[in-house]
Design goal:
- It is built from five helices and twelve strands.
- With 190 residues, it is of the alpha/beta class.
- It has a seven-stranded mixed beta sheet with strand order 2-1-3-4-12-11-10. A three-stranded mixed beta sheet has the order 5-6-9. Strands 7-8 form a two-stranded antiparallel ribbon.
- Strand 1, helix 1 and strand 2 form a beta-alpha-beta unit.
- 43% of the residues are buried.
- The structure holds glutamine (GLN).
């Protein structure tokens, strides 16, 4: 199995290391040709306005959304969750717009710019999962068809729809491989 990682900006190396630990080959995606032959794609955290502009500059915006629409499994973390969403509150920034969700950016306010918490995520098993949030967004609205995997105080933090998986937190910054493993096992063909 080979997984692409969008490598325009952000936490690329951390995702790569996680996948290498799981014995999976990776490809940095920097142009449309890099999508050939991959079994899934990770959109890392970073800054979503910048990443949206870079997607346009590198001619990747349309090829990526088309690949997603054709069934390529895509896992977005943080900025990646924003890019996957059809709606972004108060913003017309570039996005892939593949999930029937509406997101609120930088949603936890200044005092909680970044925080960590152990959360129960039944889809990952009994053991709580250590979530790391950095200037995190959350999903404030999800249409039918979106399955919520974690929500906290009405904020959706982890969700899936069809071939898309989105997390408001950063699984690549922990030691716990379960979220990446979940993406590989349930979304990407082996
Ligand atoms: N706040 C950032 C954005 O809007 C996301 C932060 C992150 O990816 N850690 O893109």
């Amino acid at each position: 199995m080979r997984i692409g990682i969008l490598a325009l900006q952000g936490a690329v190396r951390e995702h790569r290391n996680m996948l290498l630990r799981l014995g999976v080959e990776t490809t940095d995606v920097l142009n449309p040709g890099d999508l050939n032959g991959i079994d899934g794609l990770i959109l890392p955290g970073g800054e979503s306005t910048t990443m949206g502009k870079l997607l346009v500059r590198y001619d990747l915006l349309n090829p990526l959304s088309e690949a997603g629409r054709k069934g390529l499994p895509i896992f977005g973390t943080c900025t990646g969750l924003i890019l996957l969403s059809k709606h972004i509150n108060n913003s017309d920034q570039q996005r892939l717009g593949l999930m029937d969700t509406c997101v609120e950016r930088n949603a936890f306010g200044r005092q909680a710019d970044s925080f960590e918490a152990d959360m129960p995520i039944p889809a990952l098993g009994d053991e709580p999962y250590h979530t790391v949030f950095i200037r995190a967004p959350y999903i404030c609205r999800a249409e039918q068809g979106v399955e919520v995997l974690l929500s906290y105080e009405g904020k959706i933090l982890f969700a899936r729809q069809d071939n898309f998986l989105a997390a408001a937190f950063h699984p690549e910054l922990t030691d716990d491989v379960r979220v990446h493993q979940y993406f590989l096992s349930y979304f990407c063909r082996s």
